[in-house]
Design a protein that fits this description.
Elements: H1 3-7, E1 11-13, E2 19-23, H2 37-40, E3 45-48, H3 71-83, E4 89-94, H4 96-107, E5 112-118, H5 136-148, H6 150-162, H7 169-179, H8 183-194, E6 209-216, H9 223-231, E7 236-244, H10 248-251, H11 253-265
Parallel strand pairs: 2-3, 2-4, 4-5, 5-6, 6-7
Antiparallel strand pairs: 1-3
Helix pairs in contact: 3-4, 5-6, 5-8, 6-7
Length: 270
């Protein structure tokens, strides 16, 4: 295994002809896909990895300059695919990793046959003609709370983002992976995510995109999925599920897994 794969804890499962790459969002690691993997492993080659900065990666490898924008993460994805000599993959990206996939697919469309995005947003801040769900004041308070007491912030943030029952396994799981992050890295990563604006890139996407979204998501208003659909350069399709929360693959697997499998297995019919 090369340095890139080792740094990102790359795991390869299954032996199908088609490759599915599973990319996790902020505050989680590859374990967020535990309900999906068993349904894919017989038919596909699956690549799992951890984004740099996740609690499962070595914090010494986290380069604050490289990861001062989402491009650094996109180059990591490209490096993993190149190292493993993957000719074209179905890329499933959750939250920020959906947009990382967007950036990577613009740079190297040959590496992707399609993108499947879960809870994706090109911009979180509201704008004059755009509703992202947050005002700058909201984010300032969020970052301040993170800085002052990370553990307390995690305890409050996890239930809000996951939604549903306060004692749910999904909230406990997200709290665990969130708390595993080094606080200064977590703050830096979340600031990059929440302050990014990738709307200008959407028209340059040529790879087909399957957009999956919860009906109710504190981090991503449902109108954002329609915005993506209208502004992506390639073919796209939207499916809004009757789920709550930003991590539906963890909190509502019974609803989400069949939807994800359908989008992974079937292409957009034009």
């Amino acid at each position: 295994m090369g340095i890139v794969e080792e740094a990102h804890n790359v795991k390869i499962l299954g032996s199908g002809e088609q490759t599915v790459v599973l990319a996790h969002g902020f505050g989680t690691d590859q374990s967020v896909w535990k309900h999906l993997v068993p349904h894919l492993v017989d038919d596909y080659k699956i690549i799992l990895f951890d984004n740099m900065g996740a609690g499962t990666t070595n914090p010494d490898y986290f380069d604050f300059e490289r990861y001062s924008s989402l491009e650094g993460y996109a180059y990591d994805v490209i490096a993993i695919l190149e190292d493993l000599k993957i000719p074209g993959c179905i890329y499933v990206g959750h939250s920020v990793s959906a947009m990382i996939g967007v950036i990577a697919s613009i740079a190297r469309p040959d590496l992707f046959t399609k993108l499947v995005t879960v809870s994706a947003s090109p911009r979180y801040l509201n704008d004059s003609d755009y509703y992202g769900g947050f005002e700058q004041e909201d984010l300032d308070q969020l970052f301040e709370a993170m800085s002052s007491n990370y553990k307390a912030w995690c305890s409050g943030f996890a239930p809000l983002v996951v939604g549903g029952d306060m004692d749910s396994v999904a909230i406990q799981e997200f709290s665990r992976t969130l708390f595993n992050m080094r606080p200064d890295i977590a703050l830096s990563v979340l600031q990059i995510i929440f302050l990014s604006d990738l709307r200008h890139l959407l028209a340059r996407v040529t790879v087909p995109c399957h957009i999956i979204q919860s009906m109710k998501d504190l981090a991503v208003p449902v109108v954002v999925s329609e915005y993506l659909h209208q502004h992506l350069g390639g073919e796209s399709i939207v499916e809004v599920m009757s789920t709550e929360g930003h991590l539906p693959q963890l909190s509502s697997p019974d609803v989400v897994i069949p939807v994800m499998l359908r989008h992974i297995r079937h292409d957009i019919v034009v």
